[in-house]
Amino acid sequence: MPSYTAPTKDMQFILHDVLKVSDAPTPGYADLDRDFTAAILEEAGKIASEVLAPLNPVGDTEGCRLENGVVYTPTGFKAAFAQMQAGGWPGIDMPEDFGGQGMPYVLGTAVGEFFSAANQAFTMYQGLTHGAASTILAHGTEEQKATYLHKMVACDWTGTMNLTEPHCGTDLGLMRTKAEPQADGSYKVTGQKIFISAGEHDLAENIIHLVLAKIPGGPEGIKGVSLFIVPKFLVNEDGSLGPRNGVSCGKIEEKMGIHGNATCVMNYDGATGYLLGEEHKGMRAMFTMMNEARIGVGMQGVAQAEIAFQNALAYSRDRLQGRDITGPKNPDGPADPLIVHPDIRRNLMEQKSFVEAARAFLLWGSTLIDAAHRDGDRDADGLISLMTPVIKGFLTDKGFDMTVQAQQVYGGHGYIEEWGMSQYTRDARIAMIYEGANGVQALDLVGRKLALDGGKHVLAFFDMVKGFCKTAGETEEMGEFVEPLKRASKDLQTAGMYFMQEGMKDPNAALSGSYDFMHLFGHVCLGLMWARMAEASLAALAAGTKDPEFHQTKLATARFYMARQLPMTATHLARIQSGAEPVMALDAANF
Amino acid sequence: MPSYTAPTKDMQFILHDVLKVSDAPTPGYADLDRDFTAAILEEAGKIASEVLAPLNPVGDTEGCRLENGVVYTPTGFKAAFAQMQAGGWPGIDMPEDFGGQGMPYVLGTAVGEFFSAANQAFTMYQGLTHGAASTILAHGTEEQKATYLHKMVACDWTGTMNLTEPHCGTDLGLMRTKAEPQADGSYKVTGQKIFISAGEHDLAENIIHLVLAKIPGGPEGIKGVSLFIVPKFLVNEDGSLGPRNGVSCGKIEEKMGIHGNATCVMNYDGATGYLLGEEHKGMRAMFTMMNEARIGVGMQGVAQAEIAFQNALAYSRDRLQGRDITGPKNPDGPADPLIVHPDIRRNLMEQKSFVEAARAFLLWGSTLIDAAHRDGDRDADGLISLMTPVIKGFLTDKGFDMTVQAQQVYGGHGYIEEWGMSQYTRDARIAMIYEGANGVQALDLVGRKLALDGGKHVLAFFDMVKGFCKTAGETEEMGEFVEPLKRASKDLQTAGMYFMQEGMKDPNAALSGSYDFMHLFGHVCLGLMWARMAEASLAALAAGTKDPEFHQTKLATARFYMARQLPMTATHLARIQSGAEPVMALDAANF
Fold first, then answer.
1. End of a domain among A223, A247, A282?
2. What is the ipTM of this complex?
3. A569 shares a domain with A505
4. Which of A132, B126, B192, B350 is the most exposed place for a label (fewest CB within 10 A)?
């Protein structure tokens, strides 16, 4: 049976040795001292290991069940959901005014990784609620906030986001769902939405759907889309539940993974909805939810890679097969453990060096979100806006790859369902698709984010890397980490320059390289994280840390990333520089 | 619903324009003229599309069922199996003496790709039988051949291979299954084997298990392993079926994919077995089966990539979403088809450029097998022996990646089971594992095959590439294909040289780079195939072909591979040259 242990030590290292969160000027960060975060992480890790992880295979095997319009979640989900609510976990980083714990987003990300790793399908119920609540918080009227937020922060009511329709996913301008204004200021919402995660279930007494729809007579296409709150049960003035609204679940999908989360076809049949934000400005409001969701999805990629790695590592130590080519390591046993073999180590090191840097990248990104939201830091806001597609696209692609590699360590045992490794791969696969398929992330990065505010944010990123390399590179022992980072960063700048020059002449020259650029950017970010972690570990060693092995391991893992992963930037650059021609040459008919 | 059309035109191009099979001196090849192979391919393509492909989702959804020791295959499998038998397909390349069609292996590979693409789980029943029959053909006594081969060639009886036990997979020296000699010259086989594909089912009247076991008192470890024929029903002297033997299926596995094929736990309880080949030389005999199986598994990787690509391509032409950034391509419709978008094209071109070159690589490899087996060509035998791990490891890794990319074209529709794309990914995943996990293929390549016969075969490969580049490179128009191939081949030689120099000092220096070397080798092989296909297409164009678009498309796809895929060799080389240190630095305890 697979198991999960929350990587609290690694999380503490990143928060305190690398990011030094309690020294940061961001409001609320002063409280994040080592003991405080240790206590939170330990509690969260415990519930993840003991409550959520055991339900992960249950959710996969049982799946959800739709009967007469009611969706039943897998055995044990209800009790675990209640336990999460009782612990206040869903509202950890929501405002105290609405019953949340008021902690920074970075802490929400840290515990969120634990929960997602232990049980992605389960954690989505509260994750989507968080996103919907954030959107109401950002765009709702005072009355709307008062009506919904307390309940949603507590997860007594959960939330959803309704974008996709059968004929439109990425291109939401094609949307057909209608919202007709009523005399009382409400709307009647009619249409069908698909792929609605947590659209219907038995975990909460009400479900607050956020639904994109068009008000008749409005602008054509995406400019005529508005956002509506459509509760499953209408809410009376006193906050109690009123009659059932005209929304129902028509079907739940059979899918490759995340079986424990109900993916619903939702039918809106003159359902009562309330405008959220301004008329025809629905996409802007929805993006509040989507940007947060994209960071959360990037986190899922890392989380699945982490639990897959943990189990692959344990298996590689237990399973005896073959002998170390340089001489037996377990001479009294019938064979040596798998971990003695170089290619198994290569595989494990790829996983380890990805997961640890990806975690640092996520937490660093989360500090930018806190700086933007809590401190109004517009540079941080611009930078995280630039990073969001990289976090979502690169971390989920690589996270999935790592679950595949972890599976491989098990040989045939990785393919049968009994050992649980197949589930990580099947669950991780969705993260590359939802909240904007990764190709769309690449398009967002190259087509929109690079040029945002006159290219200010990407230049700020390069300056930051340059500044780090200069300062850190002053010490001789940092040279081995800083030099590869410099080379990789130069590849990224060259690629960016290529887009600027060629993209002006032919936008396809830039867009043909967008996917490679997203990965190139991701590698530079993880290289930066490894260099920063190396710096922190060297400092800890110099200060006479009591745990030198931990820090020596960080340095060795950083070296692996620099030697074995960062060279990918050259290949990405070569592909980018080959331009549009190889990609665009064929007529569609000739493929 | 997914569909499948056999790529007969592409197959014909490779067989006749590139490999020029009917001009080859290999016995039997003179018969392979265009019309003859066209007729065979067309028939095979028809049964693949019309009979096997519709059963593919059925097999996935229903799976196999074990009841009271009997395994029931999915609805429709029995009738389809009978249809395959009636057409003589299972024995297409088996000797006429035993009821086969006597055609070359290359033709078996060609039609095998169609069948595997249309229904991998189904085709495994006959594929394993083919491997078992080949082993009996190579190592059996005349009596054994007479007893089993006619029935197996016809698939009236199917075959299996039994290697793995619960505690040993790759390291078969740990095997516990025993074969005790009996007075009549037979053996009593006792033990448990796992992961036995097609171990029990209802498609054939008898199942001939080939079982590895140890004769008590024999040498320790792998040197004491022998191979046995253990029929499900004993065979009477007149060839009729006798009593049930002491072998039974204890369980069938739940697994990620290939649900239509029963993966069995087989219990041998004093079952009567007959020695196949020599005592204690079981591995040598089993390798006849495994080498063939490895080529067959490489083919499965290509086959799943092909069907996934076909469906992704069709979807990208049908699905309207967004507008071409350079202006509408479908101005009268609500949006343009997906295929206008550069990143969708990048994705599709990666698939197309892989599948077509991989197919050529497989067919070329198959001509080497024919040359070795039909003509006793020892150089061809050495070369295919070197290539086998590359074909198995590289083509299944990439084949799987391509199914993942194909799924991505569908967005959310790729994740739900309804569209069939998830099945290709789940089915393709096994090919990276069985018949020797891909890490073991890399070890076989670097640890054994490179140095085989004093390194003769790898040098022959380099000479062949060099010779091709020299001859083909004489024409100016081939320069754009030959130059990148030369660079990639140089990277491969540099890597090989690195292993020779560093591997002498430290074997881990070579083995740490084995996986990258396997991929580097694979890229050079596909680069070579693209250069050869480009040469053939240029010749066809120069000769005034009636189908210039087909050949122009080949050239464009070759250019894509050279520009976008072949640069990977530099990254693989950089990783290899970083040596053992980054991979081996950590103590097992510190991961």
1. A282
2. 0.97
3. yes
4. B192
The reply to whether A111 touches chain B by the CB within 8 Å rule is no
Q: State how far residue B339 is from chain A, nearest Cα, in angstroms.
A: 7
User: In the predicted model, what is the mean pLDDT of residues A510-525?
Assistant: 98
Nearest residue, CB atoms, A344 vs list B164, B407, B439: B439
Same domain membership, residue A232 and residue A131 = no
pLDDT of residue A291: 81
A180-235 tens-digit pLDDT: 999 999 999 999 999 999 999 999 999 999 999 999 999 999 999 999 999 999 99
Tokens of B113: 């790709």
Pairing outcome for strands A247-252 and A241-244: unpaired
Mutate to test the interface with A, among B255, B317, B345, B584 (most CBs of A within 10 A): B345
In sequence order, what are the beta bridge partners of A165? A168
Q: Helix, strand, coil shares of chain B as percentages rounded to 5? A: 65, 15, 25
Give A14's DSSP letter: I
User: Residues of A with CB below 8 A from B556's CB?
Assistant: 582, 585-586, 590
**Which residues from chain A sit within 8 angstroms of residue B414, using beta carbons?**
433
- Amino acid of residue B497: M
Cβ of A404 and B570 within 8 Å?
A: no
**A590 vs B430, B549, B580: nearest CB:** B549
Residues B176 and B134 in one domain: no
| Catalytic residue status for B143 | no
CATH of the domain at B276: 2.40.110.20
Q: Which domain holds residue A492?
A: 455-583
Among candidates B317, B560, B571 on the partner chain, residue whose Cβ is nearest the Cβ of A588: B317
Q: Which residues are CB-neighbours of A409 under 8 A, at least 6 positions away?
A: A312, A315, A316, A338, A344, A347, A348
pLDDT bin (cut points 50, 70, 90) of residue A286 is: confident
Q: Closest Cα partner for B301 from B390, B370, B369, B387?
A: B390
| Interface residue B582 vs chain A (CB under 8 A) | yes
Query: B254-278 in b/e burial notation, b at 16+ Cβ within 10 A?
Result: ebbbbbbbbbbbbbbeebbbbbbbe
> A425 contacts in B (CB within 8 Å)?
256, 429
Question: From CA A458, how far away is CA A190, in angstroms rounded?
Answer: 42
Q: Specify the DSSP element, H or E, that contains A302.
A: helix A282-318
Q: What is the pLDDT of residues A120-171, one digit of tens each?
A: 999 999 999 999 999 999 999 999 999 999 999 999 999 999 999 999 988 9
Cα–Cα distances in angstroms (integers) from residue B133 to residues B67, B90, B144, B207, B565, in the given order = 28, 11, 11, 12, 39
Same-domain pairing of A464 and A579: yes
Q: Which residues of chain B have pLDDT under 70?
A: none
Tell which residue, A188, A152, A172, A157, has the closest CA to residue A274. Answer: A188
The CATH number of the domain where B108 resides is what?
1.10.540.10
A12, A124: one domain: yes
Chain B 172-201, residues with CB within 8 Å of chain A CB atoms: 173-174, 194-195
Does any CB of chain B come closer than 8 Å to the CB of residue A504?
no
Best B165, B326, B341, B415 member to test A by mutation, with max A CBs in 10 Å, is B415
Q: For residue A289, what pLDDT is reported?
A: 75
Name the minimum distance, in Å, from the CA of A255 to any CA of chain B.
4
Number of domains in chain B: 3
Considering the domain boundaries, does residue B111 fall inside one?
yes
Q: pLDDT for B92-128, tens place per residue?
A: 999 999 999 999 999 999 999 999 999 999 999 999 9
- Residue pair A322/B171 in contact (Cβ under 8 Å)? The answer is yes
**Which B residues 539-558 touch A at CB under 8 Å?**
549, 552-553, 556-557
Are A342 and B432 in contact (CB < 8 Å)? Answer: no
Pick the catalytic residue from B350, B435, B502, B535: B435
